[in-house]
Design goal:
There is one protein chain. The chain is α/β, with parallel strands linked by helices. The chain has 17 helices and 20 strands. The protein is globular. It starts with a strand and ends in a 5-residue tail after the last helix. The relative contact order is 0.10. It binds adenosine-5'-diphosphate. The site of adenosine-5'-diphosphate has 19 residues, from helix 1, strand 15, strand 16 and helix 12.
């Protein structure tokens, strides 16, 4: 198949969260399976041109933004055969220190930046004669692409392509005031509750959901959850309307990046048949954070965006109880300042038991995965979650809340039957989390049982090939459905 995969971020070029891991790995897997894939993303300042040289393609795109015409250069990067990467260079929009905003808020021109991006994807597909079967967009930053495809581009050479839209987190919708509508060059007839309007505002994510030929999200459980008023962030009704074209495909993991047997960032490599290297990784991690270096102290790790979704109110509520249980705790994260301040207070009080770094640091993320005994994800909601899956591979036992992809990937360990790969709790409450940690520590104190649990986790296979096959089936079914239907929405 010919696939255009568009994402506002992708490893190894630019990353703020799990979407970048997906957008780096899934198209690459399609390419390895023999499909012809083009990944399209903006060229931000963080793109490291020394490591990944970019080649000017000589193509300039022209995209109308309201009455103006904005232009962009297109650069290409060659990673693997069959896998073309195009980066849209428009420095006024993308040459900034961050991708979407600063810690104090989103960039004010995000509507314009991603109207431009959503439309450049189609302009690039035309300019490079990609003739795609599938145009696959991801998250609100590409939400208008399916809208354009069904409206302004419905008579273009792209008209035969099926559009797929993946929701990686329904909490981020790209909501803008209606004064931004003219910049889209879409008619006001689309500013209705049936199309782009959301309580008087313009909603890019809704555009993707309503106009794409198929809609997907990143776990089966999350697909069910977002169709409920409790977890749909106001879009549950729109999603229920589309339930026949709605899929939930679990993300995979790129074990080329995340495996303790080959990880270049960790102090000693290890595998299920030789676990001793993990001890070195633990003492290395304790040293990095200035904690007491002792093998027998259970060490809990967290790597996360510091936002409400991730359960930091629960963690803050029980952090001192955890210290009293004799645990150590390390955290790597960036995000909202209120959480930085809240958590930093605890670190100052317990510097030998608590380590924190408020930064984005990929190498340290790998060290935490390898050096921790236990990994925490007490999320309020979690579309898929990747770190719990990485943790399994590193023999780092996940403690998670039973929501979204966490529920789909983690099975609560039963010390009697010895089935399961982690620990899981249902109610979003600090006491449930604490009770679950205590259950976890009981198993930790029985080393042979703990190692069994670790090894069970390490054996799990969440590689991308399975997910890629599921996506290809959705692509094929959607194309077939589209070809049966008379044209139009
Ligand atoms: P989300 O996409 O909601 O942020 P995921 O668990 O799906 O959550 O993916 C998060 C990804 O971002 C993981 O690869 C994780 O290791 C990485 N990550 C998050 N915060 C940091 C950080 N501060 N430094 C390095 N990597 C981080």
């Amino acid at each position: 198949m010919k696939i255009v995969f568009a994402s506002p971020e992708a490893v190894p070029f630019a990353k703020t969260g799990g979407l970048a891991d997906v957008a780096g790995a899934l198209p690459k897997t399609f390419a390895q399976m023999g499909h012809e894939v083009t990944l399209i993303l903006p060229k931000y300042r963080v793109v490291d041109e020394k490591r990944f040289p970019l080649n000017p393609t000589g193509i300039t795109l022209h995209v109308p933004i309201g009455q103006r015409m904005e232009s962009a250069g297109v650069y290409s990067a060659d990673l693997t055969p069959n896998f073309k990467v195009l980066l849209i260079r428009q420095d006024a929009y993308y040459d900034r220190a961050q991708l979407y905003g600063t810690p104090s808020g989103d960039f004010e021109d995000n509507a314009e930046r991603f109207i431009f991006f959503s439309r450049s994807i189609l302009e690039a597909a035309l300019a490079f004669h990609l003739q795609p079967d599938i145009i696959h967009g991801n998250d609100w930053q590409t939400g208008l692409t399916p809208v354009y495809l069904k409206t302004l581009y419905r008579s273009s050479p792209l008209a035969g392509a099926a559009s797929i839209f993946t929701i990686h987190n329904i909490g981020y919708q790209g909501l803008f005031w209606h004064y931004d509508m003219p910049m889209t060059n879409l008619g006001w007839e689309l500013f209705t509750p049936q199309a782009l309007e959301f309580y008087g505002k313009l909603n890019f994510l809704k555009g993707g959901i309503v106009f794409a030929d198929a809609v997907n999200t990143v776990s089966r459980k999350y697909m069910e959850e977002i169709q409920t008023p409790e977890m749909g962030f106001g879009l549950d009704g729109v999603l229920r309307d589309r339930h026949e074209d709605l899929y939930g495909i679990l993300n995979g993991v790129d074990y080329g990046e995340w495996s303790p047997a080959s990880d270049p960032f960790i102090s000693k490599k290890y595998s299920p048949s030789g676990l001793s290297g993990k001890r070195d990784c633990k003492s290395d991690l304790q040293r990095v954070f200035g904690l007491t270096v002792r093998e027998d102290i259970p060490l809990i790790g967290v790597i996360s965006r510091l936002v409400e979704q991730k359960g930091f109110d629960l963690i803050a509520a029980i952090l001192e109880d955890m210290i009293n249980l004799g645990l150590q705790f390390v955290l790597l994260g960036t995000g909202e300042e209120e959480y930085h301040l809240l958590l930093e207070n605890f670190r100052q009080k317990y510097p030998k038991q608590i380590g924190m770094k408020f930064a984005f640091d990929n190498a340290l993320a790998h060290k935490i995965e390898a050096g921790s005994d236990i990994f925490f994800m007490p999320s309020r909601y979690e579309p898929c979650g990747l770190n719990q899956i990485y943790s399994l591979k590193y023999g780092t036992v996940p403690v998670v809340r039973a929501t979204g992809g966490l529920d789909d990937t983690i099975e609560d360990f039963n010390p009697i039957s010895q089935a399961g790969n982690g620990f899981k709790f249902k109610d979003y409450s600090a006491s449930c989390l604490l009770e679950t940690i205590k259950r976890c520590l009981q198993v930790y104190s029985n080393r042979p049982l703990w190692e069994k649990l670790m090894i069970q986790g390490m054996a799990a296979d969440f590689s991308w090939v399975q997910s890629a096959k599921a996506y290809l089936k959705v692509y094929q079914d959607t194309l077939a459905k589209k070809n049966q239907k008379p044209s139009g929405r």
